[in-house]
Design a protein that fits this description.
heterodimer, A: alpha+beta, D-Maltodextrin-Binding Protein, domain 2, Dipeptide-binding Protein, domain 1, 3 domains, 17 helices, 19% strand, disordered C terminus, B: mainly alpha, MetI-like fold, 13 helices, 76% helix
């Protein structure tokens, strides 16, 4: 036994000694000499196969490794990528590809790579969650539903460098779509050779974007290096993006940032605790609007009480988005929402909300009670039975929101709200099966067009979990399919928004925003509302010998930045 | 003839018989765990294939066919059992191109290493502190150690995890050193997490060690040893320590299993890619195959650990014998 004790003591000291050797191994946020940055992820990317990816983290990694016909440039503008020019008409589009775009093994990217990828996306066997985003292409939906063969998809490679697309219906936002992840090319030979292993590891991943996947230790580490075969490699200044930390723990992420181990993290949103700490450390806080909108959704199915418009109107006239967002939720970064379509959406020439303003609903308890009385009369009830609010236990503030609604509706209208709290997957299931009266829900845009929000309430849309059905609304949606005229489209969307409010289809609550921190010497990080939310392809490091001044300490181009006061 | 010779062999090697028996009952236990988890999991409402974007019924059918969810539940159960025997846990629902076997193979060794290190710190520290407390019974150091033990037992692990991370940051600040505060790039990254993970067990062992040392204080053989004129130190190491260790060994079995499987919080805070994270996330995501794979694997691991500890116990304490 004494020998064992001695051995243990020895091992202990050895390990302490070893740990002090850790001093030499240094991961730093920014490495100016090698042009490297280090970041952290909250979870590892579950699917790096662009035809199947459907989650935010995979999108972010993929956006560095692959490139589509068009891309978002440093300032969030659409610009030529694999396609050097294009022609968009009412019936289709033609893309002329550059001849110098290469895969990481030096093989040229051709029009066939796109045809193959797009056919695989809509192939019912692939079962891609994002197949619907290709539906503007002719026959895509029918193929996806197993009614037509793959070859009938409306996309053709005229030659190696000319891609011709035929539309199912006019699609004025098609250029936005081809920049999206699901539209990226795939290498047929390798996809077939690797099979299920395609994009499962660094060894079975092929890139055609600014970076290559050099190392991927699952759950632990991702390393991306500048792609020497990338056609536009001269505009990329970083040599390497290190992601040596994967954790969801917000305080661990914040500590890594304070220790200058990481330059920022993905997906970064500081909680109120971290914001206080950041202010204490005099860090400059930045704000980024994610583009997503959160709202209460009513169940419009016939057998539900919320099918009654007056009941919905009663509730609508009680909930004040301003009060809710700032006083109840109180999360810095969010802004109150009075309409479904966010401010940043463009109408004809200016933002839609400026061209077609919508007066917010007046918060008036008397009006609300009048509506309730009418609802009771129509429903032939003296008291309204309890209503179920469906929420989940995820990070979307469900419980707080639920308790607020419970209190408020009980106080003002004497309504009983019961909370139905479920794990996320179960909430989704109940939501789509219609087992709720109200649900606290959110929607993030897939492309920069009001349609990405508006068509959620189209009766034919599978994502219409509210099962809202309105012939007039459907007609307006279908009209947008028939025109590319921006003025007419803006008018159509304005009308839809008015219906959503007048019919109390949903009650908008807030547009989500994130407060984040980023190393002051890291510039050129692009943040977007659609596709990949953050991109470091054009990022660069300001050398230590340059003092940060007001002018070069300006934030990134796209998001508005504000200093948040406690 | 054959039968009796086999019986003779078994009689000759009682330990082997014992192990064989334990293994068989272990297998039954694992089968029971697997069956209960399988049906329990399928009975929970919710659906591993649901996602925010709705897919067409055709795609839905294809997905169900890919995972065999289109078959009747009993058929699924049969396939599942057959695959377990083959050692194949299937493909994850959330990470469509990763096998559950690979997830376990890649991440369990890290959890296990973290757990073993934690156990090492816990037993070393627990035995040491317990002995110290017993040695200085009712003195200041005894009281201090006992207060610390109560503190460690009552404060949840994540508080220590967060505090120790802040602690490393302070140390780095003061010494201009660069100790890792999170991540995993070699065993050095596991030292602080292991200490934090082992704290609860350390406290438990300390108490156990102290009380079992005090128990044998008045035993006959200690009096004999004193009468022989042995020094206090000699008595302590040769007679007291070895006997007092016995109860400690018994807690090691469950502790090994608990520590190697219970590192979730520590894995999160220190960004360590262990299996715990996958296990918990699989439950939240209703990732059927990962839930089943990790549960059966942990079940098997627990059974084997307990058997090994029992054998070890017999070796440490010769009084314990396999009785026919």
């Amino acid at each position: 036994m004494p020998a064992l004790t001695k051995l243990s003591v020895l091992v202990f000291f050895l390990s302490v000694l070893l740990s002090s050797c850790g001093i030499s191994k240094k991961e730093t946020a920014l490495n100016e000499k090698n042009q490297e940055i280090s970041l952290a992820l909250t979870t590892e990317p579950p699917k790096l196969n662009s035809i199947k990816s459907a989650d935010a983290i995979s999108f972010i990694i993929l956006d560095h490794l692959t490139e589509g016909l068009l891309r978002y440039g440093p300032n969030q503008q659409l610009e030529p990528a694999i396609a050097k020019k294009w022609k968009l008409t009412k019936t289709g589009a033609t893309f002329w590809l550059r001849t110098d775009a290469k895969w990481q093994d030096g093989i040229t990217v051709t029009a066939q790579d796109f045809v193959y990828a797009w056919q695989q996306v809509v192939n019912p066997k692939t079962a891609s969650g994002y197949a619907f985003i290709l539906y503007p292409i002719k026959n895509a939906e029918s193929i996806n539903k197993g009614k037509l063969p793959l070859e009938s998809l409306g996309v053709k490679a005229i030659d190696d460098f000319t891609l011709e697309v035929t539309f199912e219906k006019p699609c004025p936002y098609f250029l936005e779509l081809v920049a999206f992840m699901t539209y990226r090319p795939i290498r047929k030979d390798l996809h077939q050779e690797w099979g299920r292993a395609y994009a499962a590891d660094a060894e079975t991943f092929i890139s055609n974007g600014p970076f290559t996947l050099t190392e991927w230790v699952h759950g632990a580490k991702i390393v991306m290096d500048k792609n020497p075969h990338y056609w536009d490699k001269d505009s990329i200044s970083l040599n390497r993006i290190n992601i040596p930390y994967i954790t969801r723990d917000p305080s661990a992420l914040f500590n890594l940032f304070l220790e200058e181990k990481i330059a920022t993290w993905i997906t970064p949103a500081l909680g109120s605790g971290s914001i206080k700490k950041a202010l204490k450390e005099h860090l400059s806080l930045k704000k980024f609007e994610t583009g997503a909108v959160f709202y209460f959704e009513f169940n419009h199915r016939d057998d539900r009480l919320t099918h009654n418009k007056n009941l919905r109107k009663a509730i609508q006239h009680v909930i004040d988005p301003y009060l809710y967002t700032n006083k109840v939720l109180g999360i810095a970064g969010n802004t109150p929402a009075y309409r479904l379509l966010p401010k940043w959406l463009i109408g004809n020439k200016k933002p839609l909300h400026e061209e077609y303003p919508l007066t917010p609903v007046t918060i008036d308890h008397k009006i609300a009670r009048d509506y309730l009385a009418r609802a009771k009369q129509e429903l032939n009830l003296t008291t309204i039975p309890p209503l179920y609010l469906l929420i989940d236990d995820g990070g979307s503030n469900g419980s707080l929101t639920g308790e607020y609604l419970q209190e408020l509706l009980n106080d003002v209208l004497g309504l009983t709200i019961l909370l139905d709290k479920q794990i996320f997957k179960l909430r989704l299931q109940k939501q789509y099966q219609g087992e709720f009266d109200l649900t606290f829900s959110g929607w993030a845009p897939d492309y920069n067009d009001p349609l990405t929000f508006a068509d959620m309430f189209y009766s034919q849309n599978a994502n219409n979990s509210a099962q809202y059905e309105n012939v007039h609304y459907d007609m307006l949606i279908e009209s947008t399919y028939k025109t590319t005229n921006p003025k007419l489209r803006a008018q159509l969307f304005a009308k839809m928004q008015r219906i959503l409010q007048e019919d109390a289809v949903i009650i908008p609550l807030y547009y989500s925003g994130n407060i984040y921190v980023q190393h002051p010497r890291l510039k050129g990080v692009r943040r977007s509302r659609t596709g990949s939310s953050i991109n470091f392809s054009y990022a660069y490091i300001i050398p230590e010998n340059i003092t940060l001044t007001e002018s070069n300490n300006q934030p990134e181009a796209m998001p508005e930045t504000k200093k948040v006061m406690p | 003839m054959n039968h009796s010779s086999a019986q003779n062999t078994l009689k000759k090697y009682p330990l082997l018989t014992y192990i064989a028996k334990r293994l068989v009952s272990g297998l039954i236990a694992i089968w029971f765990i697997a069956t209960a988890t399988f049906f329990g999991m399928h009975m929970i409402p919710g659906d591993p294939l649901s996602s925010e974007k709705q897919v067409s019924p055709q795609i839905r059918k294809n997905l169900e066919a890919r995972y065999g969810l289109d078959k009747p539940l009993l058929t699924q159960y049969g396939i599942f059992l057959k695959n377990i025997i083959k050692g194949d846990f299937g493909i994850s629902f959330t990470q469509e191109n990763r096998k559950v076997n690979d997830i376990i193979r890649e991440h369990f060794p890290i959890s296990a290493l973290l757990g073993l290190l934690a156990l090492f710190f816990a037993s070393l520290g627990g035995i040491g502190l317990g002995a110290l407390a017993a040695f200085h019974k009712n003195q200041l150091s005894d009281h201090l150690i006992m207060i610390m033990v109560i503190l460690v037992v009552s404060v949840p692990g994540f508080v220590f995890a967060a505090l120790s991370q802040l602690g490393i940051m302070k140390v780095n600040d003061l010494l201009h050193s660069n100790f890792p505060i999170a991540g995993f790039d070699g065993i050095t990254y596991l030292i602080v997490p292991a200490i934090v993970l082992g704290l609860g067990t350390l406290a438990y062992i300390t108490r156990l060690m102290r009380s079992s040392l005090l128990d044998i204080e008045s035993a006959d053989y200690i009096r004999t040893a004193k009468a022989k004129g042995l020094s206090n130190g000699q008595i302590f190491v040769k007679h007291k320590l070895r006997n007092a260790l016995l109860p400690v060994v018994t807690v090691l079995g469950p502790a090994i299993a608990g520590i190697t499987t219970g590192g979730l919080v520590v894995e999160m805070v220190f960004a360590i890619p262990g299996l715990g994270k996958y296990f918990v996330e699989a439950v939240q995501q209703l990732d059927y195959t990962v839930i089943m794979g990790t549960t059966v694997f942990y079940g098997g691991f627990l059974v084997i650990t307990v058997i090994l500890v029992d054998i070890f116990y017999g070796w440490v304490d010769p009084r314990i014998q396999v009785v026919k």
